[in-house]
Design brief:
Chain B: Keywords: Membrane, Transmembrane, Transmembrane helix. The complex is a heterodimer of chains A (242) and B (286). Chain A is mostly helical. Chain A contains seven helices and no strands. Helices cover 53% and strands 12% of the residues of chain B. Classes of the chains: A mainly alpha (242), B alpha/beta (286).
Amino acid sequence: MKRTIPLFISAVTGFVLIGTAFIPKFVDWGNDAMAWFNLLAAFAFILGGGNLLKMQLQKISAQQPGWGYAAVTLIAFFITLFVGLAKVGVNPSVKFPEFAWSGEFQEEGSAFWWLFEYIFYPLSATMFALLAFYISSAAFRAFRAKNTEATILLSIAVIVLLGRTYAGVWLTGWLPNEPIIGTSGITYSDFHLPHLSQIIMDDFTTPGMRAITIGIALGVASTSLKVLLGVDRSYLGSDQEA
Amino acid sequence: MLETLQTLDRRWIFLAMFLAVAVPLIMGTTFPEEPSDQVMAVFDAVENLPDGSNVVMALDYDPASEGELQPMASAFTRHCALKKHNIYFMTLWPQGGPMIQRSTELLENDYPETYKGKYGTKYVNLGFRAGNEGVIKLVVEDLKKSYDTDVQGTNLNDIPLTKNLKNIQQVDLLCNVSAGYPGSKEWVLYGSAPFDIPTVIGCTGVQAPIMLPYIPQQLTGMLAAIKGAAEYEQAIINAYPELNDNLAAKEGLKRMGPQLVAHVLLICLIALGNVIYFWERKQGTS
């Protein structure tokens, strides 16, 4: 029963959503199903919070290396949760002044807004910006022309890196718009780095990505059918197939 | 010399990268940009709409990617404001709320004659909803099943802009700025493609190859990375020369300076690394 009911719900919901593409009557049912899905997605935040608590508390209780960071995570989590839920520093909404908690929790000047603007925002931006330093270090130590494939990859990377900035115009902008060989149609200006960069994106990257995308879509379709028909039950917490 | 480089402390590389980004940024160096066809397709999609059209602005990014994507969001917002479009803001990312705030502040502060005090009649902030693709599937079929109120808790039936809006199939254009999942790809798969909603997107450089296959059938155009943002800003400045003196309208253009120097530094580092590698091979130490 514990497995049958979730399997039944998944199958019915899935087939209803497939039906919305073909049967107009199913559209409203599909919308109801999606509304329920959105409710479930909101509950997923609670599960996520619970999982975070469990993992960090395990680290602290076992005194694992770095357990201090887990403690910082938990403290930050509870402070943010409290100021968000209690709407600390939020003024009542002008539309509902009689309700003290009617304001928006992210209202400018509120404690939650302050935490976001002055702690989360700079930390988050800094973490992402650090990538530039790691990439530069990797460029120096790891990008080696060890074989033909690596050499091609490096050459293309250099063309794209230069072509996506004004450096490409500086270096090759002087090439004239004249044919190279008679009436071949190829001109010197075809070798402008920004143009070459665009050719790489349009004629090599796009077809490759298109093929990968079609492959993924076929995989998704077959996996989805297995889930809807109850063949693949791994989402129920088991790795067994029927 | 090469022996020294072999054992080079990586902190010197970090310092070089720091200078490569900081110096052009402080100097405010900008370079001329020529909008590509793809960027012009985005520009035309917004420009060719009649004044006062309805545009959904889905901003699906967070502070981590704001450096790359905020110039696009600001440029989209600015362009829509110049055309006096009605704008519906929404986000699928929990951290997207404050990103929307930056755009609404731009509307109120830079275009007060059109947008100041016009919340609900010229623009509306629907805010965040959990559910990723689920939210997209709902808003394209039945908006009020997903969003019954705006961020201020006002019922959508009481807001002039949303009162008669059944779903976003009724809008004239969808602009999406996204840093990943859920974002541009999901909007195309579940929104624009099945319902033929004209869509333009701005995305990170990493996402651009993933979105390329959808152009021009499902996507009208795409701004890829800061380069796309800079070209779009240039296209707007070309069409509205009065913006030429507005530094806030050149955020993307300003960021192309650090990008240029950082890219050149990366190429130099790759070349230097390979010189050392081949020298080591010659010495028989690799």
